[in-house]
Amino acid sequence: MSLLTYPTTRQHRALRARRRPRRPLVLLAGGLVALALFGGAGAVLAATAPQPAPAAAPAPAHNPNCTLLVPAQPLTAAGLATPYRLVATDRRAGACHEANADQAAFVEAAILDPATGRVSVYRPLVTDVDRRPAAPPVAPVLPTGAVVGIWFGSNGDTLTLRGQTPTALAAGTCVNGLGRSLFGQFAYCDAVAFFRAANAAITAGKLVVPAARTGRDGLPCPTVRDFGVVDQDQSDNVVSSYLVLGNGRTAQNTAANRAGLGTGWHVMSNGSDNGLVDRFVGPALGCPAWTAPDLGDPGASVPSLALNELLAAARATAPVALVPPNDPMTQVNGRSSLAKTNLYRAGVDQQALATRGTSAAAYCRNLVAVAPPRLVRDRSFFQQAPSPDPAAAPNLFDFLTQRLHASYELLGCAKLLNRPND
């Protein structure tokens, strides 16, 4: 696959809004209100500073559009253990560095043993193109006939896949958009084959999906297809995390590496819908994530995008949120694309849409009907839970209300429902 085009302006806004809502919002009398924080403060400063210091020059923006170099034979044990390499899609816009939290890419694999139906997880490492790993990746041992699916996420705006060899992307059946139109932060390799095999194992009784559970709020535990937790681009990004050292080198986030690399590292995660449900919303409501053994970290069990989608397919309650054609990641030049929507859906085990029809408006209608009442019901739980982005919101409740407000705008719900964002 060749280098692809940048996203549209609307896609850019949608991708950024998930992680950093532009303005703090508060819930007043049942409505969302934007706080104008800067006007009054600016007037006071102007009145008390007759000779204000010149404004500092803005820091150069980081290049948000990066490319991930996929190893040869990515679905094999050797391919999984080979580091992916991060480079700038357009080097004239600046470099891309895996240690930069605003540019980092993440990789997550799920492995199915067709004989037993067991699923395991492996998190391939990403490094800069010119840096060695801080610790050698663990070589996974795959079962005979293993079916491997790989998913990608990014903290930047767009992630392009390119092979380290001419045949790497074809060998992995890799997809990161429709033609020259990228999904954005998301991509996958051989996901369709993995989900086909996993669903066959579920039907045969080999792979058992965890039983439905009830949260502390008395409602079914939310899944990644619950309108109470989805946003403008659901089912994107992954749960993977890496260790980052002060010198910019990276390592797999394993017990051995955490112990062996001393204290000069920090954990960097992918800002994702999957991570939001597994690490924040679920724990706040007493709802455990479905986990599987991590082949790179003996003794550890971890959640993953693949497990989340399989669980949601089996346990989500009506109305079920499926990727809609007004999702900015599925649009082409700002317009809905049935082909691109279905290509995205295929990567997360969702049935194809026959026509666009009224599915976009229905998605907005269900978002309005489900999300606000559940937020109000769960307010006490979420206000006591940590925020995924403390710089944007002090707790999980404020984070989710800001996210809902932005999603309504970015999905075009006001126009589709003829209802302003109240």
The biggest sheet, with number of strands, parallel, antiparallel or mixed sense and barrel status, is: 5 strands, antiparallel
What would the principal axes of the Cα set say about the shape? globular
β-strand amount? 15-25%
Helical percent range? 25-40%
User: What's the tally of helices?
Assistant: 13
| Strand count | 20
* Largest sheet, spatial ordering of strands: 6-5-8-13-10
- Unreliable segments (pLDDT under 50, ≥5 consecutive)? 1-54
Task: Tell me the Rg in angstroms.
Answer: 21 Å
Q: How far do the termini sit from each other?
A: 43 Å
How would you classify the helix and strand content by structural class?
A: alpha+beta
What value does the average pLDDT take? 88
If you had to describe this structure to a student in words, what would you say it looks like?
This protein is an alpha+beta fold. The protein has a domain at 62-321 and 331-358. It contains 13 helices and 20 strands. The chain has helices spanning 9-17, 39-48, 77-81, 168-172, 191-203, 255-260, 273-284, 305-315, 338-347, 359-377, 379-383, 396-410, 413-417; strands at 25-28, 31-34, 65-70, 84-88, 105-112, 119-122, 126-128, 147-154, 158-163, 174-175, 177-178, 181-182, 187-189, 241-245, 250-252, 265-269, 292-293, 301-302, 331-332, 335-336. Helix 1 (9-17) runs antiparallel to helix 12.
